[in-house]
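Ticket #4471: structure export looks truncated?
Reporter: QA, pipeline team
Priority: medium

Steps to reproduce: submit the single chain below to the structure queue and open the exported record.
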Amino acid sequence: LFPPTQEIVSGESEEENNGVNLMEFSDEILLHILSYVPCTDLVLNVRRTCRKLATLCLDKSLTHTVLLQKDYKVNKDKVKQLMRDIGKEIYQLNMAGCYWLPSSSIDHIMRCKNLVKLNLSGCHITSLHLSKTLSTLQQLRSLAIDVNPGFDASQLSSECKATLSRVLELKQTLYTPSYGVVPCCTSLEKLLLYFEILDHSREGFMLSGQLMVGESNVPHYQNLRVFYARLAPGYVNQEVVRLYLAVLSDRTPENLHAFLISAPGSFAETGATKNLLDSMARNVRLDALQLPKAWINGSGLLQHLKFNNPFYFSFSRCTLSGGQLMQRVMNGGKDLKSLTSLNLSGCIHCLAPESLFRKAEDDIDSSILESLVVSCCNLRHLNLSAAHHHSSKNIGNHLCQLLARLKHLLSLALPVCSITDVAANMEKPPMQSNVMPQTLGKKVRIGIQTYSNQKPHSSVFWTLMGSLPFLENLEIIGSSFSSAMPRNEPAIRNSLPPCIRAQSVGDAEVAAIGQVTYLQSLTLAQLPNILTGSGLVSIGLQCQHLRTLSLANLGMMGNVVYMSALMDMLKHCKCLRDLRLEQPYFSAGAQFFQALSHCSSLQRLCIVSRSGTLQSDAVMSFMANCLEVIMCHMFMGESLTVCKNLQQSLVRSFQADRPALNVVIFPLLHEDLTEVIRDVPMRHLDEITLFKSRVAEEPPNLWW
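Actual output as written to the record:
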């Protein structure tokens, strides 16, 4: 806020030069500016600058809600001092993902007597610490916690249970089969469950989905309005979630308006779940719905469910046809202005009138998409990835042209083959993937002039990008792409070839993304026609708000053809915080890390590369120069010895000054990769290390 050498004595003091004196701004403007400063800095540092700021930093608008979830510089001493200074003023406290703080830090929360909302997901906390803390928080109404092995509900005091009985919203992440604190929460209106239980223990023993002794108390769902369950892969997670659902099947809450279950793979329907769905069809009207694909495919469930003012639908990986979607869900194309988020990822037939005799690669029916766009005109989040949505040659009916009408879109996920300009490509000879561009093998200065005329601005994808002024999150992912590092399984050694329609998508389409001025998150995966990566430079220059970048399998798989352009791009990404790169034969050397050092805001780096190499000295130098980096994950082709030595050096050199530092350097194809992955903090694993489509993954504002 001020030059380090300048000492401000009074808020009324004036600058000796003609510069602007910050203290002359109104309190309203100063409060707005201060709202962007981490609360720990406000209370522990800025407040001591001058009298005026000392008063403003303690304003209720700044102390009412304290967000520590991505304040990676906070440590146990700062938490202690923060709670001493403003504990009584805090009504909402978010410490989600503060995995580096010891469980003793949680004890200081007892000073926050007026706390209404508390998020401790990802924090180290025992049953006894939880009991001690919650016993003093009589105003608490919203709680998020993890349930780890060793959790014992019998250790919760009567005062703690009294607090839990008043909790209306509970988010619970389970790492062991348990009801957790759900049976104590007798007034629940919103229940969010994340099942992260592994099928095997570290010793290799098979785990059971049966609940532990003393966990037989029945949850209370009578007031439930929102039920959400997200399952990680594994049969144990499925067994445990069925125990939670068993109570719902006996009596469906009358006020239930959102029912969502996200389950990967096959999650078979049982008699109990069928009874639950039948009861829901008779007794409730929903605003949000997501079900496992096996519960929807081949059933007439959707035509019996009733909806009120739906704001979220997810039919991910279902075999619904476009005709079924429009008739059973979209009311025959009638007005659905309330719908703001729609996830159709993996719905290979959702834009076709029927699916019985249709091939996944056949052209879409543009009239179905047009009806969807017209009836859901207020969509803000749309996911059409993991499917072949091929537009016909008819002019004006291209998928990109129809989606351009959705002016309110904030996030969009599309398959690569869907953005191909069919009419334009008919006039071109087919791409020969074995022909290398002449520019490769020598250094070429990449800039605007090298790609501005690669594609006419009238291309359908260029028009789409220019038509979405508010877009913040964009994913362009190959329909057959699969990450080399899936969850709970060995690394994938081979990948499927890209769709034939995707063969022409390359640098020009990437350059078109540069029009999206306010883009914050970008994912590009399996774009086969990337020849130089020149479009990346356009994005770096024009998308100055970009915070998250994920690139995977661009161009030819045997050569990182876009390395020079990537390094040029990174020099302009001053706001970039998260970078994920997945590319075979990637060389993480001195030049790459020197370019990456220009990303002064970078916090998290993940590189996944089969047969990739790294330079240990370059990594050490990069970490020394980039002081904000707290996560470094590299899964490469180096030996286990090289990886372990580098990891130990990084931890030894930087852990003391960066309490949140998380370093994993490990061979990608090593048999123990899954054991290493299980120790990665869930925040990093879920947000960056594992590749997935995140658009419309959950309802908007599911949790604060």
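Status: closed, not a bug. The export was complete when the record was re-opened. Leaving a note from the reviewer for reference: The first strand starts at residue 65 and ends at 67.
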